[in-house]
Design brief:
Blueprint (H helix, E strand, L loop, with lengths): L1 H8 L10 H12 L38 E6 L5 E4 L5 E4 L3 E6 L7 E12 L6 E4 L4 E4 L3 E7 L2 E8 L1 E6 L2 E6 L2 E6 L2 E2 L3 E2 L7 H4 L2 E8 H12 L2 E4 L6 E7 L3 H12 L1 E7 L2 E6 L1
Parallel strand pairs: 5-6, 16-19
Antiparallel strand pairs: 1-4, 2-3, 3-5, 4-5, 5-8, 6-7, 7-10, 8-9, 9-12, 10-11, 12-13, 12-14, 15-17, 18-19
Helix pairs in contact: 4-5
Amino acid sequence: MKDNFEKNIRNWKIPALLSKEEAWQKLNARIEGKETKVIPIFTQRHVWVSLAASFALLVGMLFFINNDTTYTIEAKYGQKEVVALPDGSIATLNSGSSLSFSKDDFKNERRIELKGEAFFEVEKGSTFSVKTKQGTVTVLGTSFNVCDRNDFYRVSCASGKVKVEQGVSVQFLTKGQKTELLQNGLSNPIECDVASIDDWFDQDLYHFENMNLEDVFSELERQFNVKIGSKDISRELVNADVSLSNVETALDIVCTTVGLEYKMIKTGHFMINKK
């Protein structure tokens, strides 16, 4: 993998943050021990690196450029993306998610706009904020997970301290706490298992907690890039740890949990029915 990294970095172009070796060490440490399915994906479409021999301090430094002011990275269905941000922070995007930021202003204002779900490991420094449709998370240096899907919104703190804002509702989270969006605003901090916060990319496992069944199937569609239809199923809540090793295993777990069954109509297309 390092050989590929070294080979590709010579073709990338960009403003400076990390040395080539530092970038490799940081990314290697980030993914060490993970399943091969969930790996950082760096392409010339996402990151450009430049080696400026005439400027010794800039040689081998990693940075982002784009022709537009706003830089956007997307993890398509069935994929995950690991992104080294301009300040050295790392964001891992879940399937069917995207993030964007201003390349010109990021040094002065570390602000990310997120659609979907991502896990962030933030380098210490100025305020770092993640804005979604339903709320804003603000930190200085910490690690946390944000999930904003349809009407579902949850923020979980893996380390440090996190400020979560949703309208006039504000909650502060510390390590091992989460908050969710309720009808009347954000919930009070709820204890959660720190080790499970990043399992969706670290262990190929997704924890569904009080999630609407329709949203569960939507998440599986994103994870496996498949179509899942259903007939006359209830809108009950699902609590289950679902393996992301393959779609049929995931469907087995969910359907068994709620008393349903599934049938593969054709490759990549499934139908859910009552037993």
